[in-house]
Amino acid sequence: MKLIRLAVSAALLSLAATAASADSSLNLIKDGELRIMTNPIYPPMEFVNPDTGTIDGFDVDLANAIAKKLNLTTVFVTSAFQELQSGLQTGRADMIISGMSDNVKRQASMDFVDYITSGPILFTVNANAGTYKQATDLCGKTVAGSRSTSFGDNVKAWSAENCEGKGKPAIKFEGTADSNAARLGMKQGRYDAVVQGIETIAYQMRIEPNTYTLVGEPLLSNDTFGIGFKKDHTALRDAVAGALDALIKDGTYDEILKKWGLVHNAVPKAVINGVK
């Protein structure tokens, strides 16, 4: 019996040592803990649940599932969107998951594991539905969106090709503090339309029925959200990519997508820095 107890104790010590070694190889801020930066004002990706007062959403559920695959606990660190990258670089968190688009500009200072598709789309209030039926109807008009996202660049690039490039006046982009401020300004008549991720406006239209109308098709067809990492944290990046692939394979990823109404935004596999 004593020998059995010794063998079990040795096995447990071995497992603990292996877990500690794995944590160390991931270069985490704290062993056993995955610290995640997010800006919880972007439902259904991440937001403060009004019923519970806790952070909720697709990104939260996915991050928790990834951490479980890696035998880690999660700690969410909230921040303004424009401070997420600096927070990561200064060691406030191990990674970012916050509806952040993977793009070449951001890849200069971060690596991404792409985990869901997106696409900026224009929308307006129902009262303007008859006036703005296609995106080109907004040439010469004012479109608002969060200034800390890439939406402004998306609108300007689309306008250069489809408005100015065809002899029409440019769309004027007005940056706001966040998407909530953009929608409020549109309701107040200060903006003609708002640009937002297609996955979030679909959610917004469910919780504010008979309020908004989509204008045209998404401005981009290859927009993808990525989980952000410091450039030198390749071990953690690769471990998270592997965990995401495992979640896709075992069906957990699909279950989380269904929960948040995002089944059409699925990716078939984890891709590192997939946007070129």
UniProtKB/TrEMBL annotation:
Q: Does the keyword Signal apply?
A: yes
Which intervals hold domain Solute-binding protein family 3/N-terminal? Answer: 33-264
Q: Which residues cross the membrane?
A: none
**Gene Ontology cellular component terms for the protein in this record:** periplasmic space
Q: Which CDD domains match?
A: PBP2_MidA_like
- Report the locations given in the UniProt record: Periplasm
* Family label: Belongs to the bacterial solute-binding protein 3 family.
Protein name, entry field: Polar amino acid transport system substrate-binding protein
What species was this sequence derived from? Rhizobium lusitanum
